[in-house]
Amino acid sequence: MALTRYTLRQLEAFVSVAEQRSFAAAAQRMGLTAQAVSQLVAELEAVLGFQLFERTTRRVGLSSAGQYFLGSAETVLRHVQAADSAAADVRNRAAGIVRVGAPQVLAGTAMPAAIRAYQAGRPRVVVRVKDLPVDLLVDAVVAGDVDLAVGPDRPTGEGVQRVPMFNSRWVLWCAPTHPLARRKKLRWTDLRGHALVAAGRDHERSVAQMHVDAPQDARVEPVDVVDNVSTALGIAAQGLAATLAPAYVAVTARPLGLVMRRVVDPETVREVCLYRPTVRTLSPAAEGFAEHLSQWLPGWPMQDE
């Protein structure tokens, strides 16, 4: 028997009459006439091939076959109601899974705080954070490995839209005992002769671009490049080197006892952006979280000290 041979409305009419023990009461619940409800039940009986009710002038009772079938009909309606509720949640961005990529510091600080704020109103939205190197953020969005990404400015192709969120200055982080900590502001020339460690090739390239017009003997190059900014900050905390990083890493750097010093002439600002695909449609949950990030990230208190 094809499932399409009877309808949900027919099942609803049957269950309503079974619960109300009255076609008139069932009709009132469904917003129909008693004749319309009777017709729906008759159509269902014709498809099923057996009688659902025993009708008398005084009462309406379930037949033995109707009693047996009632549980299955109620189960179908419960599942349909659950599916309808789930569809409403998705439609209203109240449920779903969102995958967000971010570099280590943002993945461990800004993203959890943003998720907590979002889930306060939409607890059934699950947001999963994937920490990624800055160089891989755009590629992960293109490949569909993540729905969204948040991180420093990177070039994008036609498949990804970059939306600026906030700016954060590039600064020097060093131990309080470091010679450069004695100054409130630093020039690039002040960094010569001091060991610097870069966090990833992205940081290394960024530092090089900051003073690309400087004479060769005035340029600053790191003595080492590590994979993660937490490693660079740990090295700096022990006074083994200093590191250049955006000011928003303060949430990780401050607990290590590091101090921040501005580097000027020129002072460089790093733009943190939201990356989203343009070649595919985001799910309602991902679209909702993207809108939340667009409003929440610019006010993140650690964005720039």
TrEMBL record:
InterPro entries attached to this UniProt entry: HTH-type_LysR_regulators, LysR_HTH_N, LysR_subst-bd, WH-like_DNA-bd_sf, WH_DNA-bd_sf
PROSITE patterns: HTH_LYSR (PS50931)
GO molecular function terms noted in the UniProt entry: DNA binding; DNA-binding transcription factor activity
Species whose genome carries this gene: Variovorax guangxiensis
The UniProt record lists the keyword Transcription: yes
A Pfam family hit: LysR_substrate
Name used for this protein in its record: LysR family transcriptional regulator
Top-level lineage group: Bacteria
Record-level GO cellular component terms: cytosol
Family: Belongs to the LysR transcriptional regulatory family.
Keywords, ordered alphabetically: DNA-binding, Transcription, Transcription regulation
Domain HTH lysR-type: 6-63
